Prior knowledge:
It is a single chain. The chain is of the alpha+beta class. The protein has a domain at 282-462 and 528-537: Dipeptide-binding Protein, domain 3 (Roll). The chain has helices spanning 3-10, 50-56, 113-123, 175-178, 190-194, 240-248, 263-270, 317-325, 329-336, 367-376, 405-419, 432-435, 466-469, 495-504, 510-527, and strands at residues 30-35, 64-66, 72-74, 94-98, 139-144, 149-154, 202-208, 212-217, 231-236, 255-256, 275-290, 341-343, 389-390, 393-394, 396-402, 424-430, 453-458, 530-543, 546-547, 565-566. The strands form five sheets. Strands 1, 7, 8, 9, 10, 11, 12, 15, 16, 17 and 18 form an eleven-stranded mixed sheet that branches. The chain has a three-stranded antiparallel sheet with strand order 4-6-5, covered by helices on one side. Strands 2-3 form a two-stranded antiparallel sheet.
Amino acid sequence: xxxxxxxxxxxxxxxxxxxxxxxxxxxxxxxxxxxxxxxxxxxxxxxxxxxxxxxxxxxxxxxxxxxxxxxxxxxxxxxxxxxxxxxxxxxxxxxxxxxxxxxxxxxxxxxxxxxxxxxxxxxxxxxxxxxxxxxxxxxxxxxxxxxxxxxxxxxxxxxxxxxxxxxxxxxxxxxxxxxxxxxxxxxxxxxxxxxxxxxxxxxxxxxxxxxxxxxxxxxxxxxxxxxxxxxxxxxxxxxxxxxxxxxxxxxxxxxxxxxxxxxxxxxxxxxxxxxxxxxxxxxxxxxxxxxxxxxxxxxxxxxxxxxxxxxxxxxxxxxxxxxxxxxxxxxxxxxxxxxxxxxxxxxxxxxxxxxxxxxxxxxxxxxxxxxxxxxxxxxxxxxxxxxxxxxxxxxxxxxxxxxxxxxxxxxxxxxxxxxxxxxxxxxxxxxxxxxxxxxxxxxxxxxxxxxxxxxxxxxxxxxxxxxxxxxxxxxxxxxxxxxxxxxxxxxxxxxxxxxxxxxxxxxxxxxxxxxxxxxxxxxxxxxxxxxxxxxxxxxxxxxxxxxxxxxxxxxxxxxxxxxxxxxx
Length: 568
């Protein structure tokens, strides 16, 4: 398959279908949204948390987005560049975007190529820590060709060039607003980070971190009839069950996100007839990260960094394999996810081309086999206290996650199963707003990882996993030198893995890209530095009075919020 065929198959230039002018801007009144994990910033470049990316997407936009089918769709650009239309260079070393001529920032100034150039400089500044740096991997420069054309240049042929400025995790920020926020100063720009000027359908009226955001319709939005809602309250905090009740029972809110609660209870709520539960599967995987660095508190500031040295036992794949074998993933789905989950052994579960079958043995719990594996490896309980030791160190772990009823149920079950193979787990849960926050001073963020094992869900936007699989290169390990930003949470580092990342970056054939992605998935999973558990569908709920929702797990759930409206 040629690169030309690949680009046609993965980047269809489909314009958004126009929405019938059913109403005027603001005619639907007020919209109440609840994300029970409260955003801590509205700058997605300073936090990799979903709550920050999704809330910021009401304001900040990209050149292209991914719709509810996973199709790449022009947004601030006039079309999707391809080799065929001349937008992608024949040698695949550059992509040229043409900006729409009707886009202005909410302050009335024009979007220009200078804003894209600045955004690239902002995220790649050597003194800063950018949570979305992988979207700019391989980009050597961003240059203005004219007042409405921008060329992104790559350091090598790039068969899938739709990363920089594409999707909700790589939006454009205004150069004028963030000019003094480069590098180490980025976290200090509170006014800009809490109230970014954007091109999106809404503007920020008030932002209270870890609490609530008030938005109003952008008066300079390029579609004169949209957004249909005049104002939006984006409430954070609480828990998933309360969020579900607020839509499905009390009607206090119109939309509730991430309803990770007992599926039986959720069905009972929906049966009351006030709202509808919606699910979309993409690439989200609930997983266990096994810290490859030593998190011992006695190490002080060095804990969970390279200076701490390797973990005393979680770098031994035999131990990780046994811990994985002991888990009954089907029961975890039954108890906590229902139709919103499927057992998985892969960190990359979709699209189908990229889904490996090499690890499917984990789908069947095997506690006896796990015990036999540890016995054979000589990892034994030598003092009869029920806990095995490895080179004199008892297999005791601190296992943390965010505060959430389903996650705490999962922790309890996993703790019990691990106890049956001689592994002791101390359980800890942290408020989601803190755990997924980007505060470099906090000891409780998932990036700092001051524990042995932590559990949460992650995914990638769009349909190509190249940037996502690059999350596990060595340079993406968070640390104090990057203000604890970085996507390689478990601190995995293998030159052989990085070689596959580099190979995929220059491979155009679609089948070969699939093979490389599967091989990377298998290498990660079989290192047991990460243990996939559940392929999660996004489960949310909306009031029956709300129309226009096209839930997507390929981008932010709010990707088409400008089309949401109140039923007449």
